[in-house]
Amino acid sequence: MWRAVGFSEQDSLTITVITGAVNIVTTLIAIAFVDKFGRKPLLVLGSIGMTITLGTLAVIFGNAPVNAAGSPTLSGTAGIAALLAANLYVFCFGFSWGPVVWVLLGEMFNNKIRGAALSIAASMQWVANFAVSTTFPPILQYFGLGTAYGLYTIAAAISLFFVIFFIKETNGMELEHM
Predict the structure, then answer these.
(1) Residue 56 in contact with residue 77, Cβ under 8 Å?
(2) Whole-prediction pTM value?
(3) How many other C-beta atoms lie within 10 A of the C-beta of residue 166?
(4) pLDDT confidence of residue 2
Protein backbone atom coordinates (compact mmCIF):
# COMPACT_ATOMS: atom_id res chain seq x y z
CA MET A 1 0.00 0.00 0.00
CA TRP A 2 2.73 2.46 0.90
CA ARG A 3 4.43 1.96 -2.46
CA ALA A 4 1.13 2.72 -4.19
CA VAL A 5 1.05 6.19 -2.66
CA GLY A 6 4.64 6.99 -3.57
CA PHE A 7 6.79 5.79 -0.68
CA SER A 8 9.95 3.83 -1.40
CA GLU A 9 11.51 0.93 0.48
CA GLN A 10 13.91 3.43 2.03
CA ASP A 11 10.91 5.08 3.69
CA SER A 12 9.81 1.82 5.35
CA LEU A 13 11.66 2.44 8.63
CA THR A 14 10.09 5.89 9.00
CA ILE A 15 6.64 4.48 8.24
CA THR A 16 7.14 1.66 10.75
CA VAL A 17 8.22 4.11 13.46
CA ILE A 18 5.23 6.39 12.83
CA THR A 19 2.79 3.47 12.83
CA GLY A 20 4.37 2.06 16.00
CA ALA A 21 4.19 5.44 17.73
CA VAL A 22 0.51 5.82 16.82
CA ASN A 23 -0.15 2.32 18.17
CA ILE A 24 1.70 3.00 21.44
CA VAL A 25 -0.10 6.31 22.03
CA THR A 26 -3.51 4.80 21.37
CA THR A 27 -2.75 1.81 23.60
CA LEU A 28 -1.91 4.26 26.39
CA ILE A 29 -5.23 5.99 25.72
CA ALA A 30 -7.01 2.64 26.07
CA ILE A 31 -5.21 1.88 29.34
CA ALA A 32 -6.24 5.27 30.72
CA PHE A 33 -9.89 5.01 29.68
CA VAL A 34 -10.83 1.32 29.71
CA ASP A 35 -12.19 1.50 33.27
CA LYS A 36 -13.64 4.99 32.87
CA PHE A 37 -15.64 4.33 29.68
CA GLY A 38 -15.92 0.55 29.84
CA ARG A 39 -14.90 -2.26 27.55
CA LYS A 40 -17.98 -2.40 25.34
CA PRO A 41 -18.03 1.30 24.34
CA LEU A 42 -14.34 1.18 23.38
CA LEU A 43 -14.90 -1.99 21.33
CA VAL A 44 -17.98 -0.51 19.61
CA LEU A 45 -16.12 2.70 18.72
CA GLY A 46 -13.11 0.69 17.54
CA SER A 47 -15.26 -1.58 15.37
CA ILE A 48 -17.05 1.37 13.79
CA GLY A 49 -13.76 3.15 13.12
CA MET A 50 -12.10 0.04 11.73
CA THR A 51 -15.09 -0.70 9.47
CA ILE A 52 -15.10 2.85 8.09
CA THR A 53 -11.33 3.06 7.56
CA LEU A 54 -11.02 -0.39 6.02
CA GLY A 55 -14.07 0.31 3.84
CA THR A 56 -12.42 3.53 2.70
CA LEU A 57 -9.25 1.62 1.79
CA ALA A 58 -11.31 -1.02 -0.04
CA VAL A 59 -13.05 1.63 -2.15
CA ILE A 60 -9.86 3.58 -2.86
CA PHE A 61 -7.82 0.54 -3.87
CA GLY A 62 -10.74 -1.14 -5.62
CA ASN A 63 -10.98 1.87 -7.94
CA ALA A 64 -7.28 2.70 -8.19
CA PRO A 65 -5.54 2.76 -11.56
CA VAL A 66 -2.82 0.15 -11.99
CA ASN A 67 0.63 0.57 -13.47
CA ALA A 68 2.27 -1.68 -16.08
CA ALA A 69 3.25 -4.18 -13.37
CA GLY A 70 -0.37 -4.42 -12.21
CA SER A 71 0.19 -2.57 -8.96
CA PRO A 72 -2.25 0.14 -7.88
CA THR A 73 -1.03 3.72 -8.05
CA LEU A 74 -2.58 6.52 -6.07
CA SER A 75 -1.89 10.20 -6.34
CA GLY A 76 -3.35 13.40 -5.04
CA THR A 77 -6.47 13.12 -2.91
CA ALA A 78 -6.71 9.33 -3.21
CA GLY A 79 -3.18 8.88 -1.88
CA ILE A 80 -3.73 11.24 1.03
CA ALA A 81 -7.08 9.59 1.85
CA ALA A 82 -5.44 6.15 1.82
CA LEU A 83 -2.67 7.32 4.16
CA LEU A 84 -5.16 8.91 6.53
CA ALA A 85 -7.44 5.86 6.49
CA ALA A 86 -4.53 3.49 7.17
CA ASN A 87 -3.29 5.55 10.13
CA LEU A 88 -6.81 6.07 11.47
CA TYR A 89 -7.29 2.30 11.29
CA VAL A 90 -4.18 1.84 13.47
CA PHE A 91 -5.59 4.48 15.85
CA CYS A 92 -9.01 2.76 16.04
CA PHE A 93 -7.49 -0.67 16.57
CA GLY A 94 -4.96 0.65 19.07
CA PHE A 95 -7.50 2.16 21.47
CA SER A 96 -9.95 -0.71 21.23
CA TRP A 97 -9.45 -4.22 19.94
CA GLY A 98 -5.67 -4.31 20.38
CA PRO A 99 -5.54 -3.91 24.17
CA VAL A 100 -9.17 -4.39 25.28
CA VAL A 101 -9.39 -7.98 24.04
CA TRP A 102 -6.58 -8.93 26.40
CA VAL A 103 -8.40 -7.21 29.28
CA LEU A 104 -11.59 -9.09 28.43
CA LEU A 105 -9.81 -12.43 28.26
CA GLY A 106 -8.53 -11.95 31.79
CA GLU A 107 -12.04 -11.16 33.07
CA MET A 108 -14.40 -13.43 31.20
CA PHE A 109 -13.44 -16.83 32.60
CA ASN A 110 -14.18 -18.00 36.12
CA ASN A 111 -11.27 -18.90 38.36
CA LYS A 112 -11.67 -22.68 38.00
CA ILE A 113 -10.95 -22.66 34.27
CA ARG A 114 -9.15 -19.33 33.84
CA GLY A 115 -5.64 -20.72 33.25
CA ALA A 116 -6.67 -23.33 30.68
CA ALA A 117 -9.21 -21.04 29.02
CA LEU A 118 -6.73 -18.18 28.72
CA SER A 119 -4.13 -20.44 27.16
CA ILE A 120 -6.64 -21.67 24.57
CA ALA A 121 -7.97 -18.16 23.89
CA ALA A 122 -4.48 -16.67 23.52
CA SER A 123 -3.49 -19.55 21.22
CA MET A 124 -6.54 -18.92 19.06
CA GLN A 125 -5.66 -15.22 18.93
CA TRP A 126 -2.22 -16.11 17.54
CA VAL A 127 -3.73 -18.65 15.11
CA ALA A 128 -6.03 -15.90 13.81
CA ASN A 129 -3.07 -13.51 13.45
CA PHE A 130 -1.19 -16.22 11.54
CA ALA A 131 -4.20 -16.84 9.29
CA VAL A 132 -4.51 -13.16 8.40
CA SER A 133 -0.76 -12.82 7.79
CA THR A 134 -0.51 -15.89 5.58
CA THR A 135 -3.68 -15.33 3.56
CA PHE A 136 -2.98 -11.67 2.77
CA PRO A 137 -0.29 -12.29 0.11
CA PRO A 138 -2.40 -14.74 -1.96
CA ILE A 139 -5.48 -12.51 -1.67
CA LEU A 140 -3.37 -9.56 -2.78
CA GLN A 141 -1.82 -11.50 -5.66
CA TYR A 142 -5.02 -13.01 -7.06
CA PHE A 143 -7.67 -10.46 -6.15
CA GLY A 144 -5.94 -7.16 -5.32
CA LEU A 145 -5.81 -4.74 -2.42
CA GLY A 146 -9.40 -3.61 -2.86
CA THR A 147 -10.69 -7.13 -2.28
CA ALA A 148 -8.32 -7.74 0.63
CA TYR A 149 -9.46 -4.58 2.37
CA GLY A 150 -13.06 -5.45 1.49
CA LEU A 151 -12.73 -8.79 3.29
CA TYR A 152 -11.18 -7.08 6.30
CA THR A 153 -14.02 -4.53 6.24
CA ILE A 154 -16.51 -7.39 6.50
CA ALA A 155 -14.56 -8.85 9.44
CA ALA A 156 -14.60 -5.45 11.20
CA ALA A 157 -18.36 -5.13 10.62
CA ILE A 158 -18.84 -8.62 12.08
CA SER A 159 -16.83 -7.54 15.13
CA LEU A 160 -19.32 -4.69 15.65
CA PHE A 161 -22.24 -7.13 15.47
CA PHE A 162 -20.45 -9.45 17.91
CA VAL A 163 -19.82 -6.68 20.45
CA ILE A 164 -23.34 -5.27 20.27
CA PHE A 165 -25.11 -8.60 20.64
CA PHE A 166 -22.73 -10.80 22.64
CA ILE A 167 -20.77 -8.57 25.03
CA LYS A 168 -22.83 -7.55 28.03
CA GLU A 169 -21.40 -5.00 30.41
CA THR A 170 -22.71 -4.26 33.88
CA ASN A 171 -21.83 -1.31 36.13
CA GLY A 172 -19.67 0.06 33.32
CA MET A 173 -16.78 -2.24 34.21
CA GLU A 174 -17.67 -5.84 35.13
CA LEU A 175 -18.61 -8.33 32.46
CA GLU A 176 -21.32 -10.91 32.88
CA HIS A 177 -20.04 -14.43 32.36
CA MET A 178 -21.52 -15.93 29.23
Answers:
(1) no
(2) 0.86
(3) 8
(4) 67
